[in-house]
């Protein structure tokens, strides 16, 4: 169950197992303005009664396992404890702290209550959206009954908080000097504080400013007391004046957005990791384009030292406006509760619970951190640094047979020069490395080398297949020994080397046996490409094209411009070649970040991987990249037929695939086989096809699960005309 307690509306609903909402209701908020005759204590009790009433109405579950409840509140909330520190919009000036969680628990101790600030909930909501998946951090500004912001780390969905009070971004309560139309206005915030940002620029502050400037700007209609009670009235009046190009309305609007713009500039100045600002809330939604243009105008007038000189469009690309409906706050409350509950240590008595109920839940979470380093000829030095950080004594270098003689001895010499005692061993290369027999040989190698759990880390040196097999062996041996990846193929540099999945083929299926087992570090050295056979250079470009289509339009433009050079190892010694690898690897890591264990099954990186395993396993003459290229072409054609992928996008991507020398069809594979393979893929994706269809280059795909055999057949037939 989820609730969103705002200063204007109280909302409630149920988040279902599939992430959808049901039983959503909205009622007017019980606040000090709507109920002036009630004391703060009475207003708080009304809130408790409302929450308990909704819990009774929506409770669901069983008597022993009622639904947990996530609540977002338009108030300053201690994010560590859930205590409401104060809420002017709800309870007026001088509001005192209130432990809502405790009050609810006293009435219903069988329910798991989670209370967070409403902007924290919105930050969690936006951080979960595909559009922000590649951002390091985003900040959400709400301009509504009150004003606040939250900065959230997108990858781990963490909102940094004050260590004691558990707050962040309470910008609405920063005192400001406000003047407009030649007048200085001293207004009081809902909380009782003088000249707070809320008092001028929020949904309750703007009509007060209108009243304060009414005489100076000769607008007596702005004095109507009803404007203070109904936000829709002042917004409609102001919009009408703005539409008429009324200079008084324009001056007022610019005066109330300037302090907001100053807050945005300050935040971006001190935290360069914030790459997107999302402005939302009732004020920005009610005033629409007029408000947005005014904020951008104020930002551009203020500027940012050096940054806006170098990039005049910086604010236009960084600060955006998003409308939200009732679902955003409710879904955000659920997501924030998920995060909050995951971080709480279990308070259940271990022995008592086992004795009384014969059950106990273990709740343990492990953070994962690994670095990826890009270099040209510096692999040995980077590897020494990584091994030193592990306290390595005798690293075991497992090099695939294709590169062992070329690079293995030289690498060993450099490690020995650094004081290490490496042991070099050769493992199978290519797809011959990805089977149970090869895996067993690698495990026997680790056993004969007497690898310990910490002192003898494994170095996986080779192509993507060898990295997969060695990584799986490292994950299995002694329940996991640390390993470092050093990919030597293009697909390893931009795809296989930077993720967390390791696997071998078995039972006639691609990657049937595997683990999620991330490396300690990954070292990407483009100089290894100089000995990579031409066909595998071409094959590796498929993964670069894939990630560019779903995540990085600039990379796609680069690949398109240099399509004739992508299979030349010398290209990757140039700045543009290094940029291509860097962008591809970074886009891949950004796409995986926050979903490394694939708890979310709608994955943009699955583009080109719906039926590619069938194509790749259809014969020894098909490389992984070739299979991915064919899969991408098929997916694009299905998207064309459905009207989701624009024809020019389909033609552009297929043209690039063919330009680099990759195929788009394989005659030996039938449409029936493809459809059967898609069913196998669905079994791997929670029972749904989750087939990613492209909308535009560089944008996250839309996922569908109703692809039919006939439409696959029609798309496949068209591709046959392109040849293999």
Layout of helices and strands, plus pairs?
Elements: E1 2-5, E2 9-15, E3 21-28, H1 40-58, E4 69-73, E5 76-77, E6 84-86, H2 88-91, H3 100-107, E7 113-117, H4 118-127, E8 137-143, E9 147-153, E10 179-180, E11 183-184, H5 198-201, H6 205-213, H7 226-229, H8 231-243, H9 247-270, E12 274-280, H10 282-302, H11 307-310, H12 314-318, E13 319-321, H13 326-343, H14 350-357, E14 371-375, H15 379-389, E15 396-400, H16 404-417, E16 423-427, H17 436-448, E17 458-462, H18 464-476, E18 483-487, H19 490-496, E19 501-506, E20 509-516, E21 521-525, H20 534-551, H21 553-561, H22 575-592, H23 612-617, H24 624-641, H25 647-659, H26 671-684, E22 691-693, E23 702-704, H27 709-720
Parallel strand pairs: 1-4, 4-7, 8-12, 12-13, 14-21, 15-16, 15-17, 17-18, 18-21
Antiparallel strand pairs: 1-2, 2-3, 5-6, 8-9, 10-11, 19-20, 22-23
What does this 3D model show about the protein?
The chain is α/β, with parallel strands linked by helices and 724 residues long. Helix content is 44%, strand content 15%. The protein is built from 27 helices and 23 strands. Helix 19 (490-496) packs parallel to helix 22 (575-592). The longest helix is centred in the middle third of the chain and has 24 residues, at 247-270. The radius of gyration is 29 Å and the shape is elongated. The model is unreliable at 345-353 (pLDDT under 50).
> Could you describe the largest sheet, including whether it forms a barrel?
6 strands, parallel
What is the helical fraction, as a range of percent? Answer: 40-55%
Total helices: the number is 27
How many individual β-strands?
A: 23
C-alpha Rg, in Å? 29 Å
Strand order of the largest sheet: 14-21-18-17-15-16
User: What is the residue-averaged pLDDT?
Assistant: 89
Calculate the terminal CA-CA distance, rounded to whole Å: 53 Å
Shape, per Cα inertia axes:
elongated
Strand content: 15-25%
Contiguous runs where pLDDT drops below 50 for at least 5 residues: 345-353
Coarse structural class: alpha/beta
